Amino acid sequence: MRAQKMLTLFLFVLAFVTAFADNTPVYHSSSQDLDISLSQGRIVSGWEAYEGQFPYQLSLRMVNQNGRVSACGATLIHNEWALTAGHCPAGRVTLVVRAGVTDIKRPQLMFETTEYYTHPLYVDLLPFVQPNDIALIKFPRPVEYNDALYPIRLQSSHHKDKDYNNVVFTAFGWGRNWTDGVSPEVMNWVYLKGISNEYCRTSFGGSSIIVDSTICAAHYNVTSQSVCQGDSGGGLTILDNDGELSQLGVASFVSGSGCHTEVPAGFIRTGHYHDWYTEVTGLKFDWVPAADINAISQLLLMRAQEMLTLFIFVLAFVTAFADNTPVYHASSQDLAVSLSQGRISSGWEAYEGQFPYQLSLRMVNRNGRVSACGATLIHNEWALTSGHCPAGSVTLVVRAGVTDIKRPQLMFETTEYYTHPRFIDLYPYVQHDDIALIKFPRPVEYNDALQPIRLQSSYDKDKNYNNVVFTAFGWGKNWTDGVSPEVMNWVYLKGISNEYCRTRYGGSSIIAETTICAAHYNVTSQSVCQGDSGGGLTILDNDGELSQVGIASFVSGSGCHTEVPAGFVRPGHYHDWFTEVTGLKFDWVPAADI
Fold this sequence. Notes:
This protein is 9% helix and 29% strand. With 594 residues, it is mainly beta. It has two domains: 2-281, Beta Barrel (Thrombin, subunit H); 326-582, Thrombin, subunit H. Strands 7-6-3-4-5-9-8 form a seven-stranded antiparallel sheet, covered by helices on one side. A seven-stranded antiparallel sheet has the order 22-21-18-19-20-24-23, covered by helices on one side. A six-stranded antiparallel barrel has the order 10-11-12-15-14-13. A hairpin with a 5-residue loop joins β28 and β29 (546-556). It starts with a helix and ends in a 12-residue tail after the last helix.
């Protein structure tokens, strides 16, 4: 019934994948190729924000069940809650939040959450613009306020139906600078002007989507001024009558004719939902404007004169395996399973701090597709992983100091990585030299849960590890096409000769001098699996210290729970390249050679 009632309100949720054609309301979150988020641009016809100008604005990346990423804004309303548009998190399995951020590449905080609440009258899977397009996001832990991270006050319920015609608003975000344009690294902002719902409704052909809980805003002094794709969920603010800022709107929809046209944009009035905020959060966000307090006081004084009693009411202020061909085991399966219980194939759950050098990676490609890998910390500014993990990615999200994937000590983004020069990034088959270095945007601080691992010495690069016991670890699936764990798992593996390994792969030339093969230790299903690529293979070396002797690269096409061994890349072969890229020396001389 709702779809019929909305008539022509069809839209492509989370994307403007077709050209704008008419004045149908459409959402303006963005799921276009995320590589353009690194291009220069801005909110339409606005200005670049300075650091700390909008300390309440957050950036969201939402991942759906197919691993597709889209972008929105949100606002900080409490140290554990953010507010956004309902269509932003709806149907998503996880959200990545950046906070204390003006330049999208340099957030103060970056964390993940899976807890959000869309309004009960909002239908998550309905592919149309809807009323009640509002949602609360719960953080996994409280954030600390500072000059660059501070909450915004919401519109009072006393003003929920206030006439804002010709009132000047401010809107902000990292949305595109034009219909299907580019998105900025640095937040942009723009002035908009309030218009009546009656006029707004005519602009949208009498659409019933403009209701009492809608605020419409048009350009201020340049007709192209507006919010655009990627700005959904961000705030619309005013300097209120008491001289304080209030957020009276949540960015919801724009016209199907484009966001650079004269047609106004639609926002959700935050003042209509205070009862719901309190029901979900247990907190009270409502407040009484001074003018209303004065009116209440006058009324009470009048009653006091009549009743000789004075009452003062003080009102206080969210892939299929087939054979034994080598296949990579990065995981780009539906990320929903990353929230399910599972483990590295036939291994054990790690305890906190057991593998302080293991990192978790999420790689985003040019189509917004997310895949998962591991990596190892080798320096406070560098990590080591498989070449096929970052190859072709536009950005990487790194979790460090992490055992439970939902509770990392650090979470940050980087776009700087180096695959080995002989590795062909776009070649879709297993290759030699499957190795890459990842550069961090800033140094990490070591602690008990975050420590680097020593790499295999070049003196041991061709060492025979036949029957040597290794340890492998990661968040990979617990079986071929199985589920992935929240908590890191680990397993013992046993070294086998390259000659024997090659026979298990039908004589494949992929097993080279730079390969270590490892098979099960005491249970035939023990192995690394999908999602474990890039993680480490370690031994207790002859000097009693740990060394990383392998980087997880490939498993058999017959499945990762079979008896066929897995392949790892020997880092000892690449010390000259490590030094060439990083300027650092990771090589060392074993005591016997000294």
